[in-house]
Design brief:
Layout lengths: L9 E5 L3 H13 L4 E5 L3 H12 L9 E4 L10 E4 L11 H21 L5 E4 L4 H12 L6 E3 L3 H15 L6 E2 L2 E2 L7 E2 L5 E2 L2 E2 H4 L9 H11 L1 H9 L4 H15 L4 E10 L5 E12 L2 E5 L6 H20 L3
Parallel strand pairs: 1-2, 1-4, 2-3, 4-5, 5-6
Antiparallel strand pairs: 7-10, 8-9, 10-11, 12-13, 13-14
This protein binds nicotinamide-adenine-dinucleotide.
GO molecular function: L-lactate dehydrogenase (NAD+) activity
Enzyme class: oxidoreductase
InterPro entries: L-lactate/malate_DH, L-lactate_DH, L-lactate_DH_AS, Lactate/malate_DH_C, Lactate/malate_DH_N, Lactate_DH/Glyco_Ohase_4_C, NAD(P)-bd_dom_sf
């Protein structure tokens, strides 16, 4: 598959709840694509979102938006899955994973039955596990099944570091890797502010022991809990993150983003999806970046992988 600049850039979103519609809104505002199709189990909801977004057209860049069905995936460049069930009272995390894995299976079958031959992005949680389910069920090459991974966590990390040091977050380079969830880790050894490592710019010698840095990371890791406590869900940040990823793919940017990617021996890990910086372009994942992790970071990454492997084993993937 190759995306020429004269070709219509078409995206299909499956699941137009908070996350799907925030992503659609970001795409419209950024004029990132030419054609957008919204699919939801609840067609009326998708149709309502399409109508609402179309009414902003006079204020933004022209593009075509409509609610539709899976046959629309046939000529799409990108299908982005943001559909999923939420945890019900009394339901365990594992129940929810198994339920969402079943939902993914059904969705992917319909996408592939259309003749789709593009790239799939998954944002539904637990995103690393469900991206693996989509990869296995779709039969697409690993490069073309991408999870949103830790793109949002990395953005939160850069934002909080920028606040702490009072430097524009675009000049802060830092990664959160591993599971998008409780076992994720900050790669302190590679944090750079204006090209300077943390011990030079921030004069922080031992980032693992430093109380401020520890608290800062905890605020990144627990950000979703803090937002959900206050407003019930998180969606703007991930919506913008998905738009960023979409542009990296459709504009063939070779951007480095911490997406969830399939490991085949990198960092000594095999057979699972995890958040890691990777080069993203029109073919999907070009390569995984090989960071020189400290021993502590390598151990934490392996711990994160073990947790995800257990979950994958429990649901049979
Ligand atoms: N990856 C991230 O960083 C990140 C951040 C925030 C939220 N999320 C995840 O995104 C997912 C969606 O969150 P939300 O707040 O938008 O939820 P939501 O409940 O608002 O929306 C989910 C939508 O999916 C639809 N849906 C359910 N089953 C479907 C199916 N089989 N086919 C088509 N549509 C279906 C529902 O009708 C609903 O419109 C959740 O799993 C959430 O945890 C991920």
């Amino acid at each position: 598959m190759s995306i020429g600049i004269t070709k219509t850039r078409k995206v299909v979103i499956v699941g137009t709840g908070f996350v799907g519609s925030s992503y659609a809104y970001a795409l419209v505002n950024q004029g990132a694509i030419d054609e957008l199709v919204l699919i939801d189990l609840d067609f009326e909801r998708a149709d309502g979102e399409a109508r609402d977004l179309n009414h902003g057209m006079a204020f933004g860049s022209p593009m075509r938006i409509r609610a539709g069905d899976y046959d629309e995936c046939a000529d799409a460049d990108l299908v982005v899955i943001t559909a999923g069930a939420n945890q019900k009272p009394g339901e365990t995390r594992l129940d929810l994973v198994a339920k969402n894995a079943q939902i993914m299976k059904g969705i992917v079958k319909q996408i592939m039955d259309s003749g789709f031959d593009g790239i799939i992005i998954v944002a539904t949680n637990p995103v690393d596990v469900l991206t693996q389910v989509v990869y296995k069920v779709s039969g697409l090459p690993k490069e073309r099944v991408i999870g949103s991974g830790t793109i949002l966590d990395t953005a939160r990390f850069r934002y909080l570091l920028s606040e702490y040091f009072q430097v524009d977050s675009r000049n802060v380079h830092a990664y959160i890797i591993g599971e998008h969830g409780d076992s994720e880790l900050p790669v302190w050894s590679h944090v750079q502010i204006g090209g300077l490592p943390l011990n030079v710019y921030g004069q922080i010698e031992n980032y693992y022991q430093d109380q401020d840095m520890q608290e800062l990371f905890e605020n990144v890791r627990d950000a979703a809990y803090h937002i959900i406590e206050r407003k019930g869900a998180t969606y703007y940040g991930i919506g913008m993150g998905l738009a960023r990823l979409t542009k990296a793919i459709l504009n063939n940017e070779n951007s480095i983003l911490t997406v969830s990617t399939y490991f085949e021996g990198e960092y000594g890990l095999n057979g699972l999806y995890l958040g890691i910086p990777a080069v993203v372009n029109q073919f999907g994942i070009r390569e995984i970046l090989r960071l020189r992790l400290s021993d502590q970071e390598q151990q934490q990454l392996e711990h994160s992988a073990t947790i995800l492997k257990d979950l994958l084993n429990q649901i049979g993937y």
